[in-house]
Amino acid sequence: MMWYCRMCTSASTFRVLSIPASRQILPRWSPARHSNSARLFSAKADEPPPSPAKGERCINLYPDVPRGARTVQVRGTNRRNAVIQYLRACSVDVNYDYRSWAAHSGPWRNLEVWNPRELCRNSDMRRILFPDVLQVGVVAAGITYYNQLCARDVWLKLDTDGDGDVSTAELKAGIDAGLVEAHHIMGTDFFIASDMIMIGTTVPFTLTSMALGMVLAFRTQNCNARYNEARALWGGMVNEGRALSSRILALVSNQPKDSVVAKNAVHAVKCLMTFSHALKYHVTTDGHCPGLKIRLDMTDAEVNDAKARALRQELETIWDYDNPTELAYVDRMLAPEVANWPLHVLQEISEITAKVLMKPEAEGGAGLAPHHVDTIYRSITRFQDILGACERLYKTPIYTGATRFTSRCVWLWTNLMPLALYPIMGPYATIPSSVIVGLFMFGLEDVGARIEQPFGALPLWQYCDGIDAGLRQTLAQHQRLQEIPR
């Protein structure tokens, strides 16, 4: 078992929560990693944690991130075919540390990407190879096979003496008669004939390559802009959450620890932690939860129910489910009639501000000055803006007409390329040359497709961990500062 720390608003302290082993993927606040912080957050740190309920079924919530890893593979939408699921899996860049940066900028970085083991394990390479590049290889192989059948017929025509072999004189006679055209490349001799399927010039591909490159660059740049905007939005949420929690706790620091105001202030900070977790599930298929299997044939109600179960388990590290008030709030937020969990969280903070923080001290409130309340509401509005911007990115792709046009152009260009490569490269080099060209073109196209929905390519669970860690630190420091006379 691993110990996680959880806050308890009833006494403005923290209690230790026992998390089953199946959830021990990314430990957040365990004594093994954060012993000093764990002692701050636990009122009874020396007592053993309670055991989980018998028969409790836990979901594996977080991807396993090895030390120094730069990317991890995520499941994404669950598919019935395990082979397709493996071939179409996605990877996510995780938060970098000094080990990751050392590997990322190391002197052997350009050679390591061609390591056979790395290529086989790379999910991005598998996504490019199947099915797009595989189809290009099949087309190139079909063209080569047909042309070789034509070459066999021409060979029989050139063998005028019937000895089963074409002499130099017979080949020269065929060339003079216009039956074949001889070529030599990379130490091999081959000939082409008029009956073969091919394009005798590369001019059409040369003329369209620049336009195709511009189309791909336009799409990739727009998708990258969406990716950068999504990262900036979550970064702004981290900053705003720290600022708002610090502001609320500082403004109520003169209140007793067990007062209604102090409890509601801690409740508001917990809501700020909850907001990031709720938003993670709101803008992704499965919240990057490995144990959550979302299938394409599931109804919206089934998907929301599955997400709600995972989110409820995830919020155990924030809310005290033994406290009826906190459990009632989680139940209220995850009720079937609540369609937008992050919006529900922001409304809770707004209600606390209006009914507790604005209320005069004579009536049991915090009695905050109007300009302080205005600052809090401005922060809530910024959270509303972040929520709306994330929903815009999630629900609105790049104009689908442009995306389909780009896909058609890349598909036609790469699948017609073997026709122009055959008379230049011959039967032996046409297939590998076509596959290499397909890797370049479909690789560029897949980069855009992968980050067009940016939240599936960002380690949102790590951002949530970072927000939780910052706000827990703020709460712990707030409790210590209250004990220091001023």
Description:
The chain is mainly alpha-helical. It has 15 helices and 6 strands. A two-stranded antiparallel sheet has the order 1-2. The protein has a two-stranded antiparallel sheet with strand order 3-4. Residues 1-56 have low confidence and may be disordered.
Tertiary shape? elongated
Tell me what portion of residues adopts beta-strand conformation: 5-15%
The biggest beta sheet reads: 2 strands, antiparallel
Number of strands: 6
- Tell me the structural class: mainly alpha
Helix content: 55-70%
Radius of gyration, in angstroms, nearest whole number: 31 Å
Distance between the termini: 41 Å
**Average pLDDT for all residues:** 84
Q: Helical element count?
A: 15
| Order of SSEs | EEHEHEHHHHHEEHHHHHHHH
Q: Strand order within the widest sheet?
A: 1-2
Concise summary:
By secondary structure, this protein is mostly helical. The protein has helices at 35-41, 82-87, 98-104, 109-112, 116-121, 123-158, 168-176, 203-251, 260-282, 300-314, 324-333, 341-357, 370-395, 400-452, 460-482, and strands at residues 2-8, 13-19, 71-74, 90-93, 180-185, 188-193. The longest helix is centred in the last third of the chain and has 53 residues, at 400-452.
Task: Give the topology.
Layout: E1 2-8, E2 13-19, H1 35-41, E3 71-74, H2 82-87, E4 90-93, H3 98-104, H4 109-112, H5 116-121, H6 123-158, H7 168-176, E5 180-185, E6 188-193, H8 203-251, H9 260-282, H10 300-314, H11 324-333, H12 341-357, H13 370-395, H14 400-452, H15 460-482
Antiparallel strand pairs: 1-2, 3-4, 5-6
